[in-house]
Model the fold of this input.
Amino acid sequence: MNSLIAEHLIEAIKDIVSPPCPLHEPLFIGNESKYVHECISSGWVSTVGSFVDRFEEMLCEFTGSDFAVATVNGTSALHVALLLAGVSEDCEVFMPSLSFVATANAVAYCGAIPHFIDIERTNLGLDPSVLSAHLEQNFARTGSHWINKATGRRAGAIVPVHAFGHPCDIEAICEVGKTFGIPIVEDAAESLGSYYKDRHTGTFGESGILSFNGNKVVTCGAGGAILTQDEELQKRAKHLTTTAKQPHPWEYFHDQIGFNYRMPNLNAALGCAQLESLPEFLERKRTLFQKYKATLTKLEDIQLVEEPEHCRSNYWLQTIILKSEEASNSRDSVLHQLNQQGILARPAWIPLNQLPMYSSCPSTTLDVTNAIVPRLINLPSGPKLMQEEYA
Ligand SMILES: *Cc1c(COP(=O)(O)O)cnc(C)c1O
Done:
């Protein structure tokens, strides 16, 4: 039966795109070369320069965020955002176990412990009702903190992830944060161009982070950003990411242990050009989704993940779920057959609680995660695949 699923899938996909098709290739169709050359000619290629400032302004304009601080990558952005949320060694940080490893790593860099919460079937994001019930049952209030009754550690932050670009139920998650007095740091690394009720993802929490890695919706080569609506937090983020050096014409005075996390101007030059193309990339990715939907709905064994209600997704990675429970046995053979045909589909990440360094972290039961992840496949999704349509 599994070879039949694969055969039908391959046929359907080949109707839309021609192999070889990578999972998500970057696309440079605008001012990329021009801006990078300009940057080199100016001599300002490193951590100071006009492209970094312009990149931050463009991010604010696009997302509606009041402030943005550009960093060397998304992981460093999350590390600093967590430190500024007060995450430290005595903390546990709530997150879905369905995420890229960076989400948990950034928590570990703070000396804190990831605490895994199950996800919702509809949007593949952290389930607010599971989190709320879990806090009620297993945490006790001490002063202004909620303490895990089993471990003695305090609840430090909630890190919702907008998985594959689909907004999670961020409004309900913020309500839980408010009720328990726990700060929200949104991992919006995958969701540039995704909105929850017309508001851009990453702007709901006390901070949010973006990534501009080579496989994300737009790329700086490598890069990240912290979004925040709090001017004080923005100032502290900028200070911490620039080695905590106090401004002075010639003196090197650093007032705390800072980080060398500032985005170089050269990367920002590439990023500015990419942001100019972002609206077109989003349009192309939506067209690709519609094409996948038109053909894949004919296949009974497959469910295509669509943007959640009241949301607009960037469709960073097109995602299908094999419907039947037995199908989880056949995922790898489906993947194998797709890849053999040059359709470079990929599985979801291995849930973080199954990685050796995070296997003993606390968690809720992960029934939904465990039921869905083994049946999940990401299909080729890059804007380059729709080249002819838009040529
Ligand atoms: C890509 C990604 C990151 C990290 O971004 P980098 O820029 O690669 O450091 C963090 N979280 C999630 C969910 C991601 O997909």
